[in-house]
Design a protein that fits this description.
Helix content is 42%, strand content 12%. The protein has helices spanning 22-33, 50-56, 59-66, 72-78, 84-107, 133-143, 161-166, 203-219, 246-262, 280-297; strands at 3-5, 42-44, 109-111, 150-154, 173-180, 193-197, 224-228, 267-270. α9 (246-262) links the parallel β7 and β8 (267-270). The longest helix is centred in the N-terminal third of the chain and has 24 residues, at 84-107.
């Protein structure tokens, strides 16, 4: 069993930047401390190739970004200052998503301690997302003939607009997004299945809605599930506007992962959003997702 993390490509952000970069290091530490994952099960996420990235993103956008030539407005939309570190980081995250998706074919489940960059569109980045790691992974496996149909289950509190845009005309990929109705992005790009939840939605209503809509994913008959397991529906999340508890998120993960395992469908996980105050609440929720996977798959 292997899980992936872009260990050597962390960002050094300006003082006061809103993005909680430390959460990745904290998650890595907590997973090892609680013996949810062993060090030997972790591998470094290596950079995705040009060929892989260009399946999901326009060549002009990729070149301008990697050369530091995007306009200030475009970088502001991404939300990070440009740096060589950022280029290495997003390349590694895309590469880790590919590796995790390939590993899931062998073991039934894998994932990355990062990723879920679902706001990245073909020609622009947005919302802390530059390259869409799960889109890159899906298109890589489809091009290699490893799978013929992929489904993305996106349960981040923010709609997966970039993933929806990339796969808008691709019949081989089904995108299911369940998210906050009034949350970012404020212009949503229609996915194959969108479920918009009102502010303040709690565990019971959330889990009922998931149970009602999850079967549509399996009617598509996917051969791989890419699970965007964002933990920002948590009540403590500063950007969430929903009201899930840790128990609710655990039940969410159990519902998704049990349904996939029961049908023999491999799953590759990405951690998605988490912006709780304090950030330790998000890190605990991320670790719980991996705990659920461990209990189910006994890795």
């Amino acid at each position: 069993m292997r899980f992936y993390a872009p260990h050597r490509s962390s960002l050094t952000l300006p003082s006061g930047h809103r993005f909680p970069q430390d959460k990745y290091r904290m998650l890595h530490t907590l997973l090892l401390k609680d013996s949810i994952i062993q060090e030997a099960q972790l591998a470094e996420s290596l950079p995705a190739s040009d060929e892989s990235i260009l399946r999901a993103h326009a060549a002009g956008f990729v070149a301008q970004f990697e050369n530091g030539e995007l306009e200030e407005k475009a970088m502001k939309r991404i939300g990070f200052p440009w740096s060589p570190e950022l280029v290495r980081r997003v390349r590694a995250t895309a590469g880790g998503a590919i590796a995790a998706a390939e590993t899931a074919q062998e073991y039934g489940i894998s994932g990355q301690l990062a990723g879920g960059t679902h706001h990245a569109h073909p020609t622009f980045g947005s919302g802390y997302c530059v390259y869409n790691d799960q889109a890159v992974a899906a298109l890589h496996l489809l091009a290699a003939g490893i799978v013929k149909r992929v489904a993305i289950i996106d349960l981040d509190v923010h709609q997966g607009d970039g993933s929806a845009a990339i796969f808008a005309t691709n019949p081989s990929v089904f995108v299911f997004s369940m998210h906050g109705e009034k949350n970012f992005p404020f212009r949503k790009f229609p996915a194959d299945l969108d479920v918009a939840l009102p502010d303040g939605t709690g565990d019971e209503d959330y889990l009922r809605s998931l149970a009602d809509h999850l079967p549509a994913v399996f009617e598509f008959r996917p051969e791989l599930i890419l699970y965007q397991a964002g933990v920002d529906p948590l009540a403590e999340d500063k950007l969430g506007r929903l009201a899930l508890t840790h128990s609710g998120l655990i039940q969410r993960d159990q519902a998704v992962l049990n349904a996939c395992k029961g049908r023999g469908i491999p799953v590759s996980m990405a951690i998605g959003g988490g912006y709780a105050d304090p950030i330790e609440a998000s890190v605990t929720a991320y670790a719980n997702t991996y705990w659920v996977a461990k209990k189910l798959h006994r890795f």
